[in-house]
Design brief:
The protein is 80% helix and 0% strand. By secondary structure, the chain is mostly helical. The chain has one domain.
Length: 111
Amino acid sequence: MTVAKSLVLFVVAAVAEIGGAWLVWQGVREHRGLLWIGAGVVALGLYGFVATLQPDANFGRILAAYGGIFVAGSLAWGMVVDGFRPDRYDVVGALVCLVGVAVIMYSPRPA
């Protein structure tokens, strides 16, 4: 159950952070205005809160592992929202990152 909870939290955090960054991008680069930027800032703050809910108590471990989630999630976001088509190197790189997440977060450790 702990691994499932952790994975759900990583997905929620990814949506909040990537979505927040995308909203800020849209507000600034696409000239959509302060409402988009403000919504992005709120979403980025939500990401920071969600990360604290991870079952593991080690900040560095959580953030390091989340980096791999962010890489894969950013490519997925680009595909779904912006029509980005990753090449095979993008896909391989994202898979390497996800393997790194699994090693960092879910390897057995002495109690």
